[in-house]
């Protein structure tokens, strides 16, 4: 009920033809949502995310998407600059093994989750695995939450460094894994196919004997 009322209100507020004023209103809604979340003790990222969910339900969602495109790359760059400055690199070396473990664990869970989703929609095994691999570097919101932790003045330095390690691994290794997904999938299925004929031949020999 509340979301419907808010959606109708926002539809009326942003129903203007002036492009510059339209962009200002959209950015104001995002900033106000982030500020409200911060005032309630939540992350600003969560407030902005909820604002995005609300704006996606409005009649102007396509226009909003086009209007904020120029700000996406710029704001992302600013975020990662602030994130990088908040990380203490003195502790990163000792935390690399833990970061690798977390990255491997989350990557397997993403591949498995994507595979299950693909099979649910009747995709082939290869297509389902490809979907799973595509999810590995797709952790933007997780990175934002990690960045929020890293930039928090209350978070301990080892935790900040660990988030830095995880973000670097996700950005570098995640992109490589997604790019080489076809090679991994081909290698996986070729390995299985090579194993099956041997088993079949062994069974046939057993029957002849």
From TrEMBL:
Keywords associated with the record? Membrane, Transmembrane, Transmembrane helix, Transport
Mind telling me which Pfam families this protein's record contains? Na_H_Exchanger
Ranges for domain Cation/H+ exchanger transmembrane come to 9-177
The record's section on InterPro entries has:
Cation/H_exchanger_TM, Na+/solute_symporter_sf
Q: Which PANTHER family match?
A: K(+)_H(+) ANTIPORTER SUBUNIT KHTU, SODIUM/HYDROGEN EXCHANGER FAMILY/TRKA DOMAIN PROTEIN
| One BP annotation, GO | proton transmembrane transport
Instruction: Enumerate the GO terms in the molecular function aspect.
Output: antiporter activity
Q: How does it sit in the membrane?
A: Multi-pass membrane protein
Which parts of the chain span the membrane according to its record?
21-42, 95-117, 129-151, 157-178
**What are the GO cellular component annotations?**
membrane
What family, per the record?
A: Belongs to the monovalent cation:proton antiporter 2 (CPA2) transporter (TC 2.A.37) family.
Q: Which organism is it from?
A: Candidatus Brocadia carolinensis
The entry's localization annotation reads: Membrane
Which coarse location class describes where this protein primarily resides?
Answer: membrane
Q: Protein name, please?
A: Cation/H+ exchanger transmembrane domain-containing protein
């Amino acid at each position: 009920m509340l979301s419907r009322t808010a959606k109708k209100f926002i539809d009326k507020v942003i129903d203007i033809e002036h492009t510059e004023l339209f962009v200002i209103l959209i950015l104001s809604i995002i900033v106000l949502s982030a500020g409200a979340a911060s005032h309630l003790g939540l992350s600003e990222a969560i407030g902005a995310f909820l604002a995005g969910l609300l704006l996606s339900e409005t009649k102007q969602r396509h226009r909003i998407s086009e209007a904020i495109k120029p700000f996406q790359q710029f704001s992302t760059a600013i975020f990662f600059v602030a994130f990088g400055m908040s990380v203490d690199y003195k502790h990163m070396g000792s935390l690399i093994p833990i970061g690798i473990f977390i990255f491997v664990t989350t990557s397997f869970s993403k591949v498995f989750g994507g595979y299950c989703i693909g099979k649910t929609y009747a995709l082939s095994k290869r297509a389902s695995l490809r979907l799973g691999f595509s999810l590995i570097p797709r952790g933007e919101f997780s990175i934002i939450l990690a960045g929020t932790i890293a930039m928090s003045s209350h978070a301990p330095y080892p935790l900040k460094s660990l988030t830095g390690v995880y973000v670097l691994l996700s950005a570098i290794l995640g992109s490589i894994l997604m790019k080489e997904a076809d090679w991994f999938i081909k290698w996986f299925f070729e390995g299985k196919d090579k194993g099956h004929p041997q088993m079949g031949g062994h069974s046939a020999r057993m029957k002849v004997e």
